[in-house]
Amino acid sequence: MEIGLNFIKLIIRPVFVLMSLLVAACAGLPQMSSKSPAPLESQAVQINTLGSQQDAVADASYALMVAEIALNQGDTELAIKHYLELAKSQENPDIAERAVRVAVYGQDLEAAIEAAQRWIDLDPKRVESRQVIAAIYIRQDNIPEAFNYINSLIQTSELEDSQLFPPLLGLLAREKNANTVLAVTQRLAEENPSRAYAQYLHGMLAAQNGRPEEALKYFNRSIALAEIEGVHSARARVLLKLGRSDEAVVSLQKAVQKNPDDQGLRLTYARLLVDIKEYEKARREFEKLHQASPEDAELLFTLGLLSLESQRLDDAEKYMMMLVRLKQREGEAQYYLGRIYENRKQYEAAIDWYREVHVGEYKFDARLRIADMLGISGRTEEAIAHLDAMLKGSQSDGSLVRIYITKGELLRSARRYEQALEVFNTALGIVPGNSDLLYSRALVAEKLGRIDLLEADIRTILKTEPDNAHALNALGFTLADQTDRYQEAYGYIKRAIEIMPDDAAIIDSWGWVHYRLGEYDKAIGLLRKALSHFNDAEIAAHLGEVLWVSGNQEEATSIWKEALEKSPNDPMLQEVMQRFIP
To answer: Does some domain include residue 470?
Structure first.
């Protein structure tokens, strides 16, 4: 091995003599001047000195190459050895830095600390050197030394805290020894009580590592000292994690009022309002953001969605049209323009917009909605042909399920129950056991009086999804409505209401089974609650029937007539009114 290395050294040495001139220049070694000749004696000394220096640099260059070759060949131990020797012998902080990184890569933390200390000696103002050595001590769970290095950096750095702490946060956030990191940063916060960023640093890391109460404490300390970018948003996230959403909203609202020009803070506040479903308040905040950035596509898109959610259809159309004109998020905007016109019951215009959509998932959903619009417009055959054309293309199982369900539901809405059943049978032959298809077939079976098929399909779903509230509700309601198995129905619906207590359809079933059990007052209360949640013709039909049977025919008639104005062709309303009104 020694002979081989000597041979390599002999071959490459002349090359490194040339390279050494560049290294010498970078390292500040004296070189021959070309400006004015020196006396011969002086030149001789200078040449001899320079020659020995060039030899030294060549040796260093050779050692550097050996280290790199060793590193590339996976011999990290040899690479670390050479780099550490170079770091000690050269006055070059870049070599010391490289030695640190190679030692860390090779997981030789003792060598990394030695090299890092040399790096600090050579470049005492360099922030990264102290950060790296602190990180090494953290990996060794050496809390005192890690604290000493970081605290020394904080006390001596000429950087502003706003420049010093964010990179430190990034460095510490990557370390896996969470308890050690938090012990160090908590001590930093306690030792630097007047530095807002020290409090913020510990708060952020405590939040990251699942200590929300502790994080909140230090965020509060930070805010009391200074306004730091991001601290209010971080504090709000912690409050949400603690289940204190109202407090989070109030906190961010005050912060926005105090910092009205902080667009990032206002955006965080607006997004929080969306998360807690305060859509109208969120819309107002996004409108302010839009005024500051009128062509920001994300803001336009969000405003369009919020306006659509709150049924401000003209505003929704305005924002989505702006996106189309700007050619930003164009496909999504076209899709939602279709939804806007669908909400206006302008189905032809909705279809036109849906046909414009050519973007991924939106394109597929738009094509399904075209079928819905055709069906609503009474063009059932055209809708079926449209869906059949979709089935001819290459589709995943998930897409096939959605197409077949749309087709089956279209036929069910047209009261073509036998054909709908055939569609679901075909689909289950292609995608057997699919819960959505089984559920849809069960609903059609109920319309055909096939309680046996409904019960079989729902029980199949419940074998794999025992907490499927909609399946439990469908079985329970059917048993209550079309059989005398009321106690069994009660059990299924009770389980469903426990899982989804605010679902209007399940509350309706819960009221209906109480009616079947003769508990009229309880039934009326539940059905009123369901109707207040969702003004639906079927719920109105149920409430009216219970009111009529319990002697309140006047209110029952009023509820039915009001529902009939909204849904004049609803078959359930028509049937119940024919049964009770002479």
So the answer is: no
Alpha-carbon span 401 to 191, nearest angstrom: 62
Where is average pLDDT lowest: 123-137, 169-183, 316-330, 480-494? 123-137
How far apart (Å, rounded) are the C-alpha atoms in residues 525 and 540? 13
Largest distance between two CA atoms of the chain:
132
Q: CB under 8 Å to 376, separation ≥6 — which residues?
A: 347
Phi-psi region of 160 (alpha: psi -120 to 50; beta: other; left: phi over 0): beta
Residue 118 lies in a domain: yes
Instruction: Work out the number of other CB atoms within 10 angstroms of the CB of residue 151.
Output: 18
Number of domains in the chain: 1
For residue 435, how far is the Cα from the chain centroid?
Answer: 27
Task: State residue 152's pLDDT score.
Answer: 85
Give the range with max mean pLDDT: 19-33, 100-114, 155-169, 552-566: 552-566
Class of residue 515 by CB neighbours under 10 A (exposed 0-12, middle 13-18, buried 19+): buried
Q: Among candidates 518, 480, 525, 476, which has minimal Cα distance to 499?
A: 476
Give the span between the Cα atoms of 123 and 408, in whole angstroms.
74
Per-residue pLDDT reduced to its tens digit, 26-72: 343 333 333 334 443 443 334 344 445 455 555 677 777 777 787 77
Q: Is position 303 within any domain?
A: no
Contact (CB, 8 A) for 431 and 437: yes
Report whether 245 contacts 239 (CB < 8 A). Answer: yes
Write out the two tokens for 348.
Answer: 């032809």
Q: What is the pLDDT of residues 252-286, one digit of tens each?
A: 888 888 888 888 888 888 888 888 888 888 898 89
CATH of the domain at 115: 1.25.40.10
CA distance 293 to 455: 56
| pTM of this structure | 0.65
Q: In the numeric block, which tokens belong to residue 65?
A: 């190459």
Task: Report yes or no on 119 lying in a domain.
Answer: yes
